[in-house]
Please model this.
Amino acid sequence: MKKDIPVFDGHNDTLLHLQDGVTSFYDSLEHTHIDYDRAKAAGFAGGFFAAYTPSPEKDSNKGEFINENGYKFPLPDRITQAEALVFTHKLAAQLFRIETENPDKFRVIRNVKELKDSLDQRKMAGIFHIEGAETIDLSFDALYVLYEAGLRSIGPVWSRTNDFGEGVPFCYPSTPDTGGGLTDKGFELVQHCNSLGIMIDTTHLNEKGFWNVAHATNAPIVATHSNVHAICPMSRNLTDEQIQKIADTGGVIGINFAVSMLRADGKRETDVSMEEIIAHFRYITDFVGVEHVAFGSDFDGAKIPDVLHDVSGTKKVMEALEQDGFSEEELEKIAWKNWVRVLENTWKD
Ligand SMILES: [Zn+2]
Model:
């Protein structure tokens, strides 16, 4: 590649894998897709670091939900706000510690200027994102406190149902039209986010919830880690109508590297070719323009193709995009400029 283009990414779950006093972001981590040195070498300039509260593990065999045509996994039970708040504090603390351990190398981003400066200075940038709003109480007090702490992006649901809405279960083949959308409190959440300038992520919403957000928000519509349903007809992927709506509002879609969301055949296996990955970037570019596609890796939150291996795959994807005919200007948009534009039009400063 002619120019060293930094890649800013829409979604990772790396915070889930850091443990205070045991594993640091600056260690050479073997159990994760991302650590500082590998990310730096791959041109990974930072991204949205998700705080996601897992459901308690249940003894269930995934195999029983898979058949010859595909799969339909049941969603886990709801979790309480108290559980989610404690866990979110834990993960947010991990993010802040990455910065305090080495402020010359990593910065938690709270406004667009900080993001642009970080990209210029090649200092890694992290945005505090909450995936699934269980953390937020129904008076929205936690939203305001977490905003002051640095929260700048939130997904109303992570697939599992909560007080703000119903999410989309993991099914193949399936449309995203799987049930009810936002609740009244979900609509209120959108309003509070708009007034604070917190980005609302439609990833993991079902189709009804997506359109609820689309009609209620005054910000560009964003799906941080979702792919093209016309290529891979999985419930988590976006229909052409959704992609068109995101483009119409000046929004962006981060391409997810989860094998189950890339493969046309719906198999959950890792022998995915680079061409199959590039196809999602190309589809959105040809359909609505290169301004509306970006990275949304899902590193450390998904099973990814062997060809990517870990964060080092970021560089390989950039090279493959270049080989596919994307110009340097287009590559810069996909790599970071689209995300910066969306945040300029979403955040308060
Ligand atoms: Zn996710």
Notes: The chain has a mean pLDDT of 96. Residues 81-101 form the longest helix (21 residues). The pocket of zinc ion is lined by residues 131, 204, 225, 301 (CB under 6 Å). The chain has eleven helices and eleven strands.
